[in-house]
Write a structure and sequence with these properties.
By secondary structure, this protein is an alpha+beta fold. It has helices spanning about 20-25, 25-35, 40-55, 60-65, 85-100, 115-135, 145-150, 170-175; strands spanning about 5-10, 10-15, 70-75, 80-85, 155-160, 165. The protein has two domains: about 5-70, no CATH class; about 85-175. The protein is built from eight helices and six strands. The strands form three sheets. A two-stranded antiparallel sheet has the order 1-2. A hairpin with a 4-residue loop joins strand 5 (about 155-160) and strand 6 (about 165). Mean pLDDT is about 85; it is low at about 1-25.
């Protein structure tokens, strides 16, 4: 049996057909899917379908992913679930950190300030999204430390809004 999920998109109705059967939505099947890394997309679809169709209660999905690398958040006032694999969250965040740090060599060149700020914002967004899903034990890292590392020794600071000379500007520039 195929499960259809209805949702609203910009005032119109969007019909999404999933490839998940009600059998795959059963809690024991969810547990089996959660442990199979090659079937990540199917697991996410199964969790979403299980909640939307009422086949599995949220506590059954929580039980299915307990002790795995899957993380979840409830959306739509608890009527829907979003599931992410911890490794994917880490990869997205650390890729954003690498992109941000790739701008280090142009810090202090005014024409690159907006690009640097955009990469900082992208990194912050990736960090905030990952933190929605992560537990305290997941040890994602501290975004603020990455910002400090980016600007450390450059003579500049990021104040949350823009880039400006820091207290050590003269010392760094005059060697």
């Amino acid at each position: 049996m195929t499960i259809f999920i209805f949702g609203r998109l910009q005032g119109g109705i969007l019909l999404l057909e999933t490839r998940v059967t009600t059998l795959a939505c059963h809690p024991s099947s969810l547990r089996e899917l959660s442990l199979n890394l090659e079937r990540r997309e199917e697991f996410v679809e199964a969790c979403q379908s299980a909640v939307a169709s009422g086949v599995a209660a949220l506590h059954e999905i929580v039980a299915a992913i307990r002790g795995t690398r899957w993380r979840f958040i409830l959306t739509n006032s608890g009527q829907a679930i979003e599931v992410q694999h911890k490794d994917d969250l880490y990869a997205t965040y650390w890729e954003a950190v690498a992109q941000m740090k790739s701008c280090r060599h142009v810090i202090g060149q005014d024409e690159y300030d907006q690009e640097i700020i955009d990469r900082i914002r992208d990194c912050e967004t990736a960090h905030q999204r990952a933190r929605l899903f992560m537990t305290a034990d997941d040890n994602l890292g501290h975004f603020e430390h990455e910002i400090f590392d980016l600007f450390d020794g450059t003579g500049y600071v990021f104040d949350g809004h823009g880039i400006s000379p820091g207290d050590d500007y003269d010392q760094v520039r005059n060697g």
